[in-house]
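Data deposition worksheet. Section B asks for the primary sequence of the deposited chain exactly as it was used as input, without tags or linkers unless they were present during the calculation. Section C holds the resulting structure in token form. Section D is free text for depositor observations; keep each observation to a single sentence. Incomplete worksheets are returned to the depositor.
Section A, Depositor: J.P.
Section B:
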Amino acid sequence: MCDFALSWLVIEGHAGAIDLDGLAVVMVGTYSDDEPGSPWRVALYVDERGTKEQRDVLATIFLGRAGGTVLRNFAAAIQGVYAIRPARIEIEHVAGRERFRVPDRVEVIAAGPVATNVAVTCAIPGHDRAGHEVIAEVMRVEEAPLSWEVRGRCSYAAAFDYVGDAPTTPLMDRLPAMGMSKSPSLDRQGEARGGQHRRDTPTPRSRSALRTCSST
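Section C:
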């Protein structure tokens, strides 16, 4: 079983004529490698500061319905959606201070970097994107039926670059993302171990990402 939390902050992005600059998204979910295909079941939070049109577009992109990078990297695994909610999303993707929060539902705080000279990559931004491992001080989720609190698990921060399949599909640029799941650690070749993330997002560019994973 792997429980996870992910976040994205769009620095510059658009879906056709719809501006997505400055908007945030958080996804929490779970999957089990004991289940055929390891399907994901998730809840999605979209930035309440956006218009309904902007929130709908963000949900379309990050659930993989716009195709592109998101679908290829991870969203093809999504087979159940518990909720899609407008929410206040507090997010900071500054190196050494990575954190995100959806009040009363999600909180993720990174404690600091992992000291290593070995390159680590992740499928969510894409294995072609450089990033770094960090330790999660806490990952807390309360979104029925999803509920957990874990500490001291691995996280990952990286740059993202997501695009849709065609000029008419949502396109996003410079998207910092942050994600966490409860798996024990990353494989040093960048593969995930213990049920860690294996998904992608449509191709916006980003400067940073964070994620944490826990397996049982």
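Section D:
The longest strand covers residues 131-143.
The chain has one domain: 2-215.
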